[in-house]
Write a structure and sequence with these properties.
The structure is a single chain. The protein is α/β, with parallel strands linked by helices. About 30% of the residues lie in helices and about 25% in strands. The protein contains 14 helices and 18 strands. Helix 5 packs across helix 6 and helix 6 crosses helix 11. It is globular and about 75 Å long.
Length: about 500
């Protein structure tokens, strides 16, 4: 039986990131609710348990807790942030509001302990907390501290139980992955026996067990997520999968042609539908981004349910990823940021059952999976494109005139990124048409036209992102081409916002 790490979720938006970091180290991981029973834990027989962060305070009346018996099972336990505070609280320590809240980078000073093996005595960690452990339980000792957290890393004196106040799972914690590795292999003695091939085998069997001999409609966009989901599911059920590509009138330039040509050799059963008039009519005069997403989500489902009847399909396959679930509050306890058309944008009542084999994965994991499945590299590393398409890249109403302007401008931006050998060096790039006009001058004449924003970000998984520092000469070159070739634009700006505080897409 393979090693398994149980990640108990207390509502942190990073809970899947913890599970993903564990898998990166070659150990299978599962996410569990705090109300998991001791009997279920014993049945799963994990090599380690990780208690996640969360939005609660452990001393609040309705704070999420877990059965205290887990601490006596002999299973190594690591608490992160809220999990760290919960361990301290349950063992008799004191957790209280900190006079100084810690958010962002902090300097951790580590003591000599196996948890910090081969890690510098001082290193950068990522904090995000208002509470702190102010008094340590008597059976614990400090193994790391920061200027504002005297008990930033602790361990039980006899049991294999650790707690850290910081988020070791995030990229910004300098030695976070090494700390996790030390816990898994030097403390918990887990065995690294999981990889993407294992995932393919497990998910293929899971899809077979769920679908059986029923038919499945796939919402295929041509992006990496839906394409990988389709190829993985096709392995399981073959021609019982019917892939539907819907042109909703909100696609980029040449999108339909490019999608069909990239998917034709994958052996998929592909149907192409033009429903652009339907979508654009329903979006007429709609400005609110949430409303746009919900209209698009509902209309997609209508189209797919209509097609499903033709094939007597019972399931709808989608390439939903974990960041989609987080932003749409599709996981326990997380805050809603925006509705993704394939999560929060879906209607409450559907006749199709959802099939989402990738919903536990992040974008880079899906790309690794795509390569393992044999998808072409140019498809696997294609930049993300949102299901609602250009509707959420036009701030305001999506009309034919603005769609045409944005298509041409975006095409130039992406075309030049490829020419300058920059496309594969950024995680995602696109253009946004703003509901703002500015005065300009062209050929000695006054103009009053639209403003275009360019956006390019660097990221690993879409959970956090930073601006791509594109060469200034490149940006000036793109600006000149767009203004010379695309009527209706006379000003270009470059978005330098990170995520957080901004999201990657503007809407």
């Amino acid at each position: 039986m393979k090693s398994t790490v149980l990640v108990v979720s207390f509502g942190s938006q990073y809970v899947q990131l913890i599970a993903r970091r564990v898998r990166e180290l070659g150990v299978y991981s599962e996410i569990a609710s705090p109300d998991i029973s001791i009997e279920e834990i014993k049945r799963k027989n994990p090599c380690a348990i990780i208690l996640s962060g969360g939005p609660y305070s452990v001393y609040e009346k309705n704070a999420k807790k877990i059965d205290k018996e887990i601490y006596s099972l002999g299973i190594p336990i690591l608490g992160i942030c809220y999990g760290h505070q919960l361990i301290s609280y349950e063992f008799g320590g004191v957790v209280e509001r900190s006079d100084k809240h810690e958010y962002g980078k902090a300097m951790l000073k580590a003591k000599n302990d196996v948890f910090f093996k081969d890690i510098k005595e001082e290193s950068i960690v990522w904090m995000s907390h208002a509470d702190k452990v102010s008094k340590l339980p008597k059976d614990f000792e400090v193994v790391g501290f920061s200027d504002n957290s005297e008990n930033a890393a602790i361990k039980h004196k006899e049991l294999p139980i650790y707690g850290v106040q910081f988020h070791l799972e995030v990229y910004h914690t300098e030695y976070g992955k090494k700390m996790l590795s030390n816990f898994l292999f030097n403390i918990a003695k887990c065995i690294p026996d999981w990889n993407m091939k294992s995932f393919i085998g497990e998910k293929t069997q899971e899809v077979k067990d769920i679908v059986k001999d029923k038919k499945v409609i796939c919402a295929l966009s041509g992006g990496v997520d839906s394409s990988v989901a389709a190829v993985l599911t096709h392995r399981a059920i073959k021609d019982n999968l019917i892939c539907i590509f819907v042109d909703h009138g909100l696609l980029r330039k040449n999108e339909t042609k490019d999608v069909v040509s990239s998917l034709v050799d994958l052996g998929l059963r592909l149907v192409v539908l033009d429903r652009s008039n339907l979508f654009l009519e329903r979006l007429k005069d709609v400005e609110d981004p949430e409303q746009k997403r919900k209209i698009i989500g509902n209309t997609f489902i209508e189209v797919f349910e209509e097609e499903a009847k033709k094939y007597q399909a019972e399931f709808l396959l989608q390439g939903t990823l974990y960041p989609d679930l987080v932003e749409s509050a599709g996981i326990h306890g997380s805050a809603k940021i925006k509705s993704h058309h394939n999560v929060g944008g879906l209607p409450e009542k559907m006749h199709l059952k959802l099939l989402e084999p990738l919903k536990e994965l992040f974008k880079d994991e899906v790309r690794a999976l795509g390569l393992e499945l044999g998808l072409p590299k140019e498809l696997v590393y294609r930049h993300p494109f949102p299901g609602p398409g250009l509707a959420i890249r036009i701030i305001g109403t999506a009309n034919n005139e603005d769609l045409q302007i944005l298509r041409e401008a975006d095409y130039i931006f992406i075309q030049e990124l490829k020419k300058w050998d920059l496309y594969d060096k950024v995680w995602q790039a696109f253009a946004v048409l703003l509901p703002v006009k500015s005065v300009g001058v062209m050929g000695d004449n006054r103009t009053y036209e639209k403003v275009l924003a360019l956006r390019a970000v660097d990221s690993q998984d879409g959970m956090t992102a930073d601006v791509s520092e594109l060469p200034y000469e490149f940006l000036k070159h793109v600006m000149r081409r767009v203004i010379q070739e695309v009527p209706g634009i006379n000003r270009i700006v470059y978005d330098i916002s990170s995520k957080p505080p901004a999201t990657i897409e503007w809407e």
